[in-house]
Amino acid sequence: MRATFTHTLSELADRDPRVLLLTADLGFTVFEPFIEKHPDRFFNVGVSEQNMLGLATGLAEAGFIPFVYSIATFASLRPYEFIRNGPILHHLPVRIVGVGGGFEYGTAGPTHHSLEDIGVMRLQPGITVIAPADVPQARSAVLATWDLPGPVYYRLSKDDRIIVSGLDGRFTLGQLQVIRQGQELLMIAMGPVSADVVAAAEVLHEQGIECTVAVVASVNPPPTSDLVALLGGFPVALTVEAHYVTGGVGSLVSEIVAEHGLGCRVVRCGVRESPDGITGSPQYLQQLHGLSPTALVETALRAIQPRRTSNA
Fold first, then answer.
1. Contacts 24+ apart (CB under 8 A), 288-294
2. How far apart, in whole angstroms, are the C-alpha atoms of residue 270 and residue 188?
3. Which of 43, 110, 126, 300 is buried most deeply by CB count within 10 Å?
């Protein structure tokens, strides 16, 4: 999504002189399309994320729309107080871009595994939180939200090739996207792991189990009405995210089920343990935490087995 983000931002900068790009010593071989066209609107602040957010807050107060870019853990956690006390409390249009959510920086170790960024951002009611599932949706999301009046957090993937079947680039703020229809199980995904959810749903289809798959890219504002309508039609829902099970889409769905008195059981698929120092590829780490297509199929079968047995 990084290359798509850069090209999209460059297009926006072509038509709006308020658009700026700031980075914390990252983006080499990524930002060149923006830098070549708008060298006077690109700022590398060095390894200094807190200062970057402070600078962006001042620029936003002065009438600019600054996009600040770093690895998701460093974009969200290191300057968190600056985000809260700056653009959130002052309702300023700072765009925080966290790249490589979940385990995408797998071999870099636990300090780079962003497993709580959506949770901590979602706590603040004054910020829009967006986690696109694939490249076309990332572009749609940026185009739909770049000029909102308040702050935005984008969780973007490093992968510039990921495509989620059936999504077709759709994005609407405050809504979810249904990408597969079925009657037996509801699967709700956030982020690029949505592609693994689709793969798992295809395996379940081959076993005679039809699933509805929905993507939640607009985390705040949440797609509350859409979720209520969907959850009300299923006895069991699986939520899937490369994130801790607390704070992300699993928590969001559970809150909606509880607040609306829905009779749907929620099974949260995500990371349940603190980092233990194990590193590896994103695929290896997702498999380790039950997020591979094979693991999701096994979880789905366990989730629906009691009901299938009782109906036999």
1. 289/103, 291/193, 291/196, 291/240, 291/242, 292/196, 293/196, 293/197, 293/199, 293/200, 293/203, 294/200, 294/203
2. 12
3. 300
- pLDDT tens string 8-17: 999 999 999 9
Of all residues in the chain, the percent with pLDDT exceeding 90 is 94
Delimiting residues of CATH 3.40.50.920 domain(s) in the chain: 177-311
Q: Residue-wise over 102-114: b if at least 16 C-beta within 10 A, else e? A: bbbbbeeeeebbb
Structure-token pair, residue 301: 């079968």
- Assigned CATH for 177-311: 3.40.50.920
Which residues does residue 189 pair with via DSSP β-bridges, in sequence order? 215, 240
Q: Give the burial string for 91-101 (b: 16+ CB within 10 Å, else e).
A: ebbbbbbbbbb
Q: Is residue 33's pLDDT more than 90?
A: yes
pTM of the model: 0.96
- Give the CATH class of 2-156: alpha beta
**E runs forming strands in the chain:** 19-23, 42-44, 65-71, 95-99, 128-130, 152-156, 177-180, 185-190, 211-215, 218-220, 236-244, 265-271
Of the candidates 294, 298, 297, 269, the one whose C-alpha atom is nearest the C-alpha of residue 283 is: 294
Greatest Cα-to-Cα distance within the chain, rounded to the nearest angstrom: 68
Each residue's pLDDT tens digit, 57-104:
999 999 999 999 999 999 999 999 999 999 999 999 999 999 999 999
